[in-house]
Amino acid sequence: MAHVKTAISIQESIFKEASALAAKMNISRSKLFSIAVSEFMQKQKNRQLFEQINAAYDDMPDSEEREHQKAMKVKHRQLLEGQW
Fold first, then answer.
1. Which of 2, 38, 50, 78 could pair covalently with 83 via S-S, beta carbons 3.0-4.6 A apart?
2. How far apart are CA 71 and CA 68, in angstroms?
């Protein structure tokens, strides 16, 4: 996998915490930032998917669809009761 160097500006306190965490985890700061960005992007993808799922379930049936559902319930009941 190709690697790209980049420069970022962050608060010194965050830099110090990140450096300490990287040392504690025995990984480079670059690896720590790479992990952090990857996890952040995955959370954003998950949030977007969650919003899409919620939007799909928020779609309430219109009057035509409700009438179709009622008709299907009647037919199902007739089938179950042997009246079909």
1. 78
2. 5
Separation CA 44–CA 48 (nearest Å): 6
Paired tokens of 15: 């830099």
Find, among 12, 10, 56, the residue nearest to 33 by Cα.
10
Spans of the chain, pLDDT less than 50? none
φ/ψ of 26, rounded to 5, equals 60, 45
pLDDT at 46: 96
Question: Considering only CA atoms, which of 37, 38, 33 is closest in space to residue 22?
Answer: 33
Cα 27 from Cα 55, distance rounded (Å): 40
Helix (H) or strand (E) holding 36: helix 29-58
Q: What is the pLDDT of residue 83?
A: 67
> If you ran DSSP here, which 8-state letter would residue 82 be given?
T
pLDDT of residue 6: 92
